[in-house]
Amino acid sequence: MPDRVGIVAAAMTKFEAAKPWQHLAELVLEVTDKVVEAAGISLQKDVESIVSCSQDHWDGRTISSMPIPDVTCGHLKDESKVADDGAYAVLYGAMHILSGDHKLVLVVSHCAESHTDGTIIENWSIDHIFTRMLGLDYTLAAAMQARRYMDKYGITPEQFAKVVVKNKGNAKKNPYAQDSATLSVIDVLKSQMLADPITVMDRKPVSDGACAMILATEEIAKKLTDKPVWIKGAGNCYDPHFLGDRELADCDALETASKKAYKMAGIKNPVKEIDVVELSEYYSYQELLWTEGLGLCKRGEGGKFIDSGKTQLNGDIPVNPSGGLLSGIPITVAGMSRVAEAVWQLQGRSGERQIPGAKLAVAHGCGGICGQMHCVLVLGN
Amino acid sequence: MTQRVAIVGIGQTNHSGRRPYHNDGEVIYDAISAALADAQLSIKDIDNVIIGDMELFEGHSLNDAMLLDYTGAEGRSGFKMNTGGTVGSMNVISGWYNVASEFSDTTLVIGWEKHDEGPTTSAITTIWDPAINRPFEVGAISGLAMISNAYMTRSGCPLEVGAIVRAQASDNAARNPKAHLRERYTVQDVMSARMVLYPLNLLMICPTSLGACALVLAGEKKARKINKKPVWIRDHATAHQVTRGMDFMAEAGKIDTSMTVTGRKIFQRNHITKPMEEIQVFEMYDPCAFCQPAWLEEFGLCEAGQGWRLIEKGVTAREGSFPVSPSGGTLCTNAIGDTATVRVAEAALQLRGDAGEHQVTREVKMALASGYGGMYWTDLLLLSNTLD
Fold first, then answer.
1. Do A125 and B65 touch (CB under 8 A)?
2. Which of A116, B106, B283, B293 is the S-S candidate for B308 at Cβ 3.0 to 4.6 Å?
3. What is the CATH number of domain A5-117+206-224?
């Protein structure tokens, strides 16, 4: 993919366990105002198209994008909604530009997980004929995946806990993060068990917030900012739905998606070339599994990879310097916030969590049961 | 880095009110199988799958991931769109973006809905703003009645025109084996149906159907290899608007709406000055009988106040000079998530000359298809059978 889609600016709300003082549309309004100011554009005149990302069940509203035109100056404009993870909305926004149809696109996502019981929605996303009535939700399914991962490759709960310690520690340097803490591996292992081996600390907390970014053609992006970030490659892929149809200890779909993205970006040796990774770990073990899927280490070596310290903030290839999803990011916003964090890293705007000299970043979004679908974006400056 | 996009495969299920022995995935599978057979491809030739529907209608979340054993998306790329009633056409537009940006070469686009599995009207009621409109407006019909009343008031359109539209649609649907309501009605039959919400009686509103429609989209090079009769997606436009309920209807006819904007865009960009001559057929998403006359005007196809007079003259009939919804349209078949995909599919069939008994009598070179939904939101697509 040539350098044709530029990300001009990105914005987020502070993520919090609940934001009862803000209507869902007000979450979008907040990030839209911020991103438009950061990009130095006029929302009314310059934005041609709006791509939003949210899900009807989480908003309790058919067409959850209904209020989006109200708060994005979207009256009589092109607006559309992707109903998966936010990373897909960024990809779809990029397609708007690559196809030559639009020159400047606003991409937004929002979710207030505090408004509902997410375990019910998770259950509704599971096959309704054979599996749904078993009462499965994503945490129970994740426990099976984590257990299988442990059994097949000898990964330990201590290694999962190291992810929590690292990410909640990194989050202390991120002013947008919801949860941050100085923890030890023992603290995590001793925390309340939800579904063995997943403890309450191994799971992403309930969170409210929104994220937005401005995408533009190469020409416009260069005019608007001296620090444009280019989408150099992208890939997405689905795994089978039935857990029994999958080898849960591996992530084939992520491997396919990342290979496609790397090929487009001309990356041959990901672990050497990539400077920083922001990935979607809904549960701690997923960070280890996804680093394997992203080709940063071999299959089954995710445990050794975290042990090596390479993914720490000061390591060779920092993973989730922002604190990741474990620091609290809502679903649908998850993948888009990963892209936004990667953009800030490449623009040198990440403050205390900045990776010095970051040139190439990978952002990852996923969704579905046990990470059934993955979207990988390679960004460069 | 952009390529032109063609529809190379078209598949539809028969539409009906109930199919208790088939689940959602099986209905979708029928449409996909038909589309792949039409394109003479197998699922192995597809690299990307785009699907969409209304999540609260069937009560499934993330059904792109859930129904993947039926859609064939395993190991492939793709994602799910959801924009309400326009989702069927938005899926096609999303497929267009995937292929036009060369992210995919062959994309499978799926629109579907199974209204017999959930309370549609309860789900539609949640589209209204929770603080202001939701207590007053129920489902889709309250908005459609307002659109109809506003149109009749401003244009002088009599009630009988709604009956003419429905009687024409019933004759078209009787010729279309994929349609849901296929009974033939006279104008008199329609006029004597039970009133639901003035001016809309039971026959003047769309039914709740179930069914699926799948299209195979391909880039130019591939399309020419795959299909001898590719149908090109020449242009598309989308407009969503801010509305607090249908309060703006009082000003309709004088102000810009999503329809005036998309119509103007498509005609200007494609240098179409006399749309009713240069375009030969329009598959319109017409959820109630007065939408046809009102929206012919709003899309800029005819002068204000002329829409209903054209219908009275028979211009929009299947044998007329500008047939509208010759498939029987949304008035006879409405599985919401699939309805707008069907509009594109039916327009493409007309362009290929493959519409069978409901093929229009006029030679078709260029066609329009529209999607309607949300709060007066519109997608408009321009299709043609050549690229000149």
1. yes
2. B293
3. 3.40.47.10
| Residues 229-258, chain B, touching A (beta carbon < 8 A) | 237-242, 256-258
pLDDT in tens, B240-291: 998 776 777 777 778 899 999 999 999 999 999 999 999 999 999 999 999 9
Cα–Cα dist A65/A51, whole Å: 10
- Report the alpha-carbon distance of residue B11 to residue B31 in Å, rounded: 5
From B357's Cα to the closest Cα of chain A, the distance in A is: 36
What whole-number distance in Å separates Cα of residue B116 and Cα of residue B263?
Answer: 34
Give CA–CA dist A170/B386, Å, rounded. 58
Which residue ranges form the domains of chain B, and what is each CATH number?
Answer: 5-120+208-226 (3.40.47.10)
Q: Which residues of B touch A265 (CB under 8 A)?
A: none
pTM assigned to the model: 0.97
Residue labelled with tokens 């058919």: A62
Q: Are β-strands A198-199 and A360-367 bridged in parallel, bridged antiparallel, or unpaired? A: unpaired
Mean pLDDT, rounded, of chain A = 96
Rounded mean pLDDT, A105-113 = 98
Contacts of B57 in chain A (CB under 8 A): 62
Pick from A50, A63, A84 the residue to mutate for testing the B interface (most B CBs within 10 Å).
A63
Taking CB atoms and an 8 Å limit, are B74 and A56 in contact across chains? no
List chain A domain ranges.
5-117+206-224
Residues in chain B with pLDDT values less than 50: none
ipTM of the complex: 0.97
